[in-house]
Amino acid sequence: MSADSLKGAIKNAVDSSSTIMTDEWPSYHGIGKEFDGGHHVIKHKDKIYVDGDIHTNTAESFFSLIKRGFVGTFHKMSKKHLHRYVDEFTFRWNHRKVTDEERREEALARFVGKRLAYKEPINSKQSNESFTV
To answer: Radius of gyration over alpha carbons of the chain, in Å?
Structure first.
């Protein structure tokens, strides 16, 4: 992915009031001017992983959770439904510090008024390519 593509994806997905924290990969250079909180860099190559409140540990832990789910449970994720997998792991991540009962109640509350018809996920008009981690 080019630096422009990466920065474009970040600008599309991240609120402009955010603070961006990354490692020193050059493609991130200049992204801070797009965000109110600026851009803070952690220099992993210098064995620096935390500098006060600045770190990438949370993002790395979240992506590790997704990768473990891919390798351990799903084995194949279609690009068409990738957003659904990410939503599931986002829910798991955001509710990792609550009890099983609280997590269950929150999940059940989100089902109210929603229905996923069988034909929607298997619609052949859309690409069902998969990818590997």
So the answer is: 18
pLDDT digits (tens, 9 = 90+) for 38-55: 999 999 999 999 999 999
The average pLDDT across 56-75 equals 92
Calpha distance 16→38 (Å, rounded)? 10
19: pLDDT confidence band, cut at 50, 70 and 90? very high
Assign 13 to helix, strand or coil: helix
Which residues face 131 on adjacent strands?
77
Residue 81 DSSP SS3: coil
Helix then strand count (H, E) for the chain reads: 4, 6
Q: 54 φ, ψ to 5°?
A: -95, 120
Query: Residue 39 forms beta bridges with which residues?
Result: 20
Residue 76 token pair: 């194949």
Please, what's the largest Cα pairwise distance for the chain?
52
Please state the rounded mean pLDDT for residues 6-35.
95
Q: What distance in Å separates the CA atoms of residue 43 and residue 49, rounded to the nearest whole number?
A: 7
Q: Alpha-carbon distance 23 to 41, whole Å? A: 5
CA 115 – CA 133 distance, rounded (Å): 30
